[in-house]
Amino acid sequence: MRIYEYIGTEDEEKVIREEYEKIDGISIDFGVMQRTHRAVVIPTNFVWDDIGSFTSLERFLSKDENGNIIQNCECAVIDVKNTTIMGDKRLIAAIGIKDMLIIDTDDVVLICPKDRAQSIKDLVKKISSSQEFEKFI
Asked: What is the pTM of this model?
């Protein structure tokens, strides 16, 4: 990888994108651990969790009295339960929903039932393969 050569330059973002596209999307145990004979294991005492989804992230975030997680955003809700709402640019308002994810980023808003959170990766693949949505990737 040549990313370090471009840190702080106008080409930094472009080079990072190019280099990351070369990386196989596999876990560290398959990509590194199963290929080395020089690994060392050191006993430690810390909590570990593989935070691979919004629903697993919820275990680490505070919930309100209705089970909602509201992070980094102005939010107005009525009759909303067990819903995760994240954003930082605008007011997010919701009425009468339950068990949902609402994630507001600079250029995309995701609205998804929590029980379909694993489908987010499929949606990202669909968006990534469409020239129409290229500016969002």
From this structure: 0.66
Helix, strand, or coil (residue 100): strand
Are 61 and 71 in contact, with CB atoms under 8 Å apart? yes
Structure tokens at 117: 């959170």
Predicted confidence (pLDDT) at residue 55 exceeds the cutoff of 80: no
Top-confidence residue, 72 or 1: 72
In this prediction, residue 116 has a pLDDT band, given cuts at 50, 70 and 90, of very high
Closest CA to 83 of 106, 61, 105: 61
Buried b / exposed e over 85-124, threshold 16 CB at 10 Å, is bbbeeeebebeebeebbbbbeeeeeeebebeebeeeeeee
Q: In whole angstroms, what is the distance from residue 44 CA to residue 35 CA?
A: 23
Closest residue by Cα to residue 68 from 91, 101, 40, 24: 101
